[in-house]
Amino acid sequence: MILDEIIDELSYDLKQRKIINICVGTSYTAVILDDQSMGVSHTIAEGEVDYAGEIIGKNAYDVAVNVDNPLKRSISVAILNSISTGKLTSGDPLTLYSGGKVCAFGYYPYISAGNFSSVVLYDFSTQPQNNAKPFSQFNGETCDVAVIFGSALINNSIDKIIKNVKADHLILTGISSVEAISTLKKYGFEAIGKIVPVDQYRAFRTICEGGSAKQLSKYVTKMYLKI
């Protein structure tokens, strides 16, 4: 499983850190580590966290390895998201590409056609929007560029997507993205996009207080890394 490989790649950094704060909000999960780095992910409220109430003070790796249900993976990916190479550049990685067809996989995914002649969206949600197809219909796709949102790590669909999509260029992006360069390069990814807090306190409070994507957007910015 790709998520297991990502955890293994980032294990050294994770083992150096402790969790000093965590908030599992209705839309997003946020974690703050003892070096003041903050990680964010989507919350998928399925399953139970049997160590709830005991996470603060724990080693980040010891919590991140628990991935046996979507809610635990929400916490794990938020922890992984907090680890950064420090080499991010402002902007959206999709602007680096152009071509015929772009495919995207995520919850309520939205991709501007921009430099592409066509857009195909696969929506993880139960009520697809923006003319997206339900992900349950995905059996394979050929694209010039494929954009996989990091939420695919949480709902455990990323392995299926990578196995069945043929793309000249592959991007991992979104709020649940992670900087696991070696693992992602191994699977053909060329770029990583991330949503990075610029006002950590407000971003954390917005998540804890049930804020929406629109509300959170005031306190974060898009960044990316070409790998």
What does this structure look like?
Helices cover 26% and strands 31% of the residues. The protein has 227 residues and is α/β, with parallel strands linked by helices. The protein has 2 domains: 2-81, Enolase-like, domain 1, CATH 3.30.390; 89-197 and 219-226, Rossmann fold. Strands 4-11-10-9-8-5-6-7 form an 8-stranded mixed beta sheet. A hairpin with a 4-residue loop joins strand 2 (28-33) and strand 3. The mean pLDDT is 95.
Characteristic terms for this protein:
227 residues, alpha/beta, Enolase-like, domain 1, Rossmann fold, 8-stranded mixed β-sheet, 3-stranded antiparallel β-sheet, 9 helices, 11 strands, 26% helix, DUF4213, DUF364, Heavy-metal chelation domain-containing protein
Q: Give, in spatial order, the strands making up the sheet with the most strands.
A: 4-11-10-9-8-5-6-7
Query: Which fold name corresponds to the CATH topology of the largest domain?
Result: Rossmann fold
Count of individual domains: 2
Based on helices, strands and strand pairing, what is the structural class? alpha/beta
Uncertain residue segments: none
Radius of gyration: 17 Å
Q: In DSSP terms, counting alpha (H) and pi (I) runs of 4 or more, how many helices?
A: 9
Order of helices and strands: HHEEEHHEEEEEHHEHEHHE
User: Given this structure, which CATH class of the largest domain is correct?
Assistant: Alpha Beta
N- to C-terminal distance: 21 Å
The multimeric state of the shown protein is single chain
Question: Which overall shape is indicated by the principal axes computed on the Cα atoms?
Answer: globular
Query: Would you identify the CATH architecture of the largest domain?
Result: 3-Layer(aba) Sandwich
Q: Tell me the number of strands.
A: 11
Q: Mean pLDDT, rounded to whole units?
A: 95
Largest sheet: 8 strands, mixed
